């Protein structure tokens, strides 16, 4: 026997849906409102912390505080213009104090190496150096450093790939005149 399905009246259906929405939105509000209160409390704490860092001074008062560039006591009585005109290390070196000494290197074959040194002249000490490769082959640099006594810059190059050889280039020493 078949039974006839009875649907609830439209008023009961609307009332049920309204009740469902009301209950779920209350649950949502119950979760959101405490989060909003915590965010507001954190913002107030942040403002209080920033005020403590400023020692109760306003931004205008802090901006008016003299710093090292405006405080004559910390500048030994000199103006900013006088300090700016003081020669620095780059302008205090006489001409000819630094020179570059070069030496070429080359590796001709597989498993060969070349160790060469770009030497400073008498009365000079090495303060830096380096190397480069020509467009030819590819050499692998094993050593790139100053000579222990400071008389030059040493580079040792190794030839590993036969199809990239011969390889050649230049090394240089940056020498400082000491006498």
- Count every helix, treating DSSP H or I runs of 4 or more residues as helices: 3
CA radius of gyration is 40 Å
Distance between the termini: 122 Å
For the largest beta-sheet, the strand count, sense and barrel status come to: 3 strands, antiparallel
Along the chain, the helix and strand elements come as HHHEEEEEE
Percent strand equals 25-35%
Number of β-strand runs: 6
Structure keywords:
single chain; 179 residues; 3-stranded antiparallel sheet; 6 strands
Give the helices and strands, then pairings.
Blueprint: H1 10-53, H2 59-63, H3 80-84, E1 98-107, E2 113-119, E3 124-133, E4 140-146, E5 152-158, E6 167-177
Antiparallel strand pairs: 1-6, 2-5, 3-6, 4-5
Describe this structure in words.
The chain is α+β, with helices and mostly antiparallel strands and 179 residues long. Helices cover 30% and strands 29% of the residues. The chain has 3 helices and 6 strands. The N and C termini lie far apart (122 Å). The relative contact order is 0.13.
How would you concisely characterize the structure shown here?
With 179 residues, this protein is an alpha+beta fold. 30% of the residues lie in helices and 29% in strands. It has three helices and six strands.
């Amino acid at each position: 026997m078949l039974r006839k399905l009875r649907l609830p009246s439209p008023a009961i259906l609307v009332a049920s849906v309204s009740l469902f929405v009301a209950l779920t939105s209350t649950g949502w509000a119950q979760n959101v409102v405490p989060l909003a209160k915590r965010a507001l409390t954190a913002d107030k704490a942040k403002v209080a912390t920033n005020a403590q860092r400023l020692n109760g001074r306003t931004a205008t008062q802090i901006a008016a505080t003299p710093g090292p560039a405006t405080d004559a006591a910390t500048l030994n009585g000199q103006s900013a213009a006088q300090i700016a005109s003081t020669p620095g290390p780059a302008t205090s070196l006489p001409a000819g104090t630094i020179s570059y000494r070069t030496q070429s290197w080359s590796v001709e074959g597989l498993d060969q190496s070349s160790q060469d040194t770009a030497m400073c002249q008498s009365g000079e000490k090495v303060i830096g150096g380096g190397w480069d490769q020509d467009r030819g082959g590819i050499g692998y640099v094993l050593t790139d450093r100053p000579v222990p006594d400071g008389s030059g810059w040493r580079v040792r190059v190794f030839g590993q790939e036969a199809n990239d050889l011969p390889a050649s280039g230049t090394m240089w020493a940056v020498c400082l005149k000491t006498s």
